[in-house]
Design a protein that fits this description.
Blueprint: E1 11-17, E2 29-34, E3 38-45, E4 47-48, E5 54-60, E6 67-76, E7 82-84, E8 89-93, E9 99-106, E10 109-110, E11 121-129, E12 139-144, E13 168-174, E14 180-189, E15 195-206, E16 213-217, E17 227-228, E18 230-234, E19 243-246, E20 255-258, E21 273-274, E22 299-302, H1 308-311, E23 317-321, E24 324-328
Length: about 325
């Protein structure tokens, strides 16, 4: 019997030991049938070993074969008794190299291609497809695509381990400084000797540069009452919705607007924001003891009471806007 799968170019020697009271009338013949009923060797004579009843046949595995190959032997003795053995022995042919799929996780979250930043702990999982089994432990190397390290940083070595989970192997490494893309090269060998050497496998992106923003406005200062559209253009894709804060000095807390996420180079446009400070406009007589000056959207109030005799000489009014009183004289 063959102890392991074989592949193209391998030679399998099949031995038949006969038991016979008298003698065989001729050398036995062998027939080999592959998976699916394809006959690869038909009634071919075997070779006798010395003068004994042991016969052998050497078979060279073909590239077109995959699966189980069965052997059957036929013989006839001098008394014309016939022997026909059906699928008396078999061996496995494996001409297919392993295949692999890589995935990455960062703190348990699936981020197949990142991006990751310096110091992130990333686990790569290499899941192999193999008909039989792998021989030894596969290898995985990280290869710089566009990645360039900074401060002398280099790509880390990755050691894979199985952990008893079939054809899945994992390895953990720490992301270095620098920016750019990284790919992976995977090596593996199966028990038949077929090798996998796969370069350019699924990798990831390292990004250690903070995004920058360009901010523009639909109107320029000085501003009067009315809507203003704020446009923010990010230098790269953002992971979260950006927040725009508009702070007008002296007018209390900033006003914030949250923008929808956009891809790198695209321009998010804010919801129009009404001016926090309307242009001051006074209506009615400028000097009247019976009517206070007003400001659109506000209400006027009188200052603390003064003697009527002084009202015609001096009037003090204030306008309430955004919770702040502005004296008018």
């Amino acid at each position: 019997s063959v102890s392991r799968p074989v592949k193209t170019g391998d030679t399998v020697t099949i031995k038949a030991t006969m038991t016979e009271v008298v003698a065989l009338s001729a050398a036995p013949t062998i027939t080999l049938t592959a998976t699916g009923g394809v006959t690869t060797v038909t009634s071919t004579s075997m070779t006798q070993v010395g003068s004994s009843l042991v016969y052998t046949y050497a078979y060279t595995v073909q590239a077109s074969e995959n699966g189980t190959v069965s052997a059957s032997v036929s013989a006839t003795d001098t008394a014309t008794n016939a022997l026909t053995s059906t699928a008396a022995t078999a061996f496995i042919v494996d001409n297919t190299a392993p295949a692999v799929v890589l995935t990455y996780t960062d703190n348990g979250a699936a981020n197949v291609t990142g991006p990751y930043k310096s110091g992130d702990s990333v686990t790569v999982t290499a899941t192999f497809t193999e008909t039989n089994a792998l021989y030894g432990t596969p290898t995985l190397s990280l290869v710089a695509g566009t990645w360039t390290g900074t401060g002398g940083a280099t790509l880390p070595a990755v050691t894979l381990s199985n952990g008893g989970s079939g054809l899945a192997y994992t390895g953990t490494f720490t992301i270095p400084a620098g920016n750019g893309t990284v790919t992976a090269t995977v090596g593996a060998t199966d028990t038949a000797g077929n090798t996998l050497s796969a370069s350019g496998q699924t990798g990831f992106t390292i990004d250690n540069t903070a995004p920058t923003y360009a901010i523009t406005y639909s109107r320029t200062a000085p501003l009067s009452a009315g809507a203003v559209t704020v446009t923010v253009t990010a230098s790269e894709a953002l992971s979260a919705v950006p927040v725009i804060s508009i702070d007008q000095p002296g007018m209390g807390r900033p006003t914030s607007r949250r923008q929808p996420p956009v891809a790198a180079g695209r321009t998010p446009t804010s919801t129009p924001l009404s001016s926090r400070t309307p242009a001051p406009m006074l209506t009615g007589p400028r000097r009247s003891a019976s009517r206070a000056p007003t400001w659109p959207g506000t209400r006027a109030r009188r200052s603390p009471a003064v003697a009527p005799s002084r009202l015609t000489r001096r009037r003090r009014w204030s306008v309430r806007s955004c919770g702040r009183a502005v004296p008018l004289r």
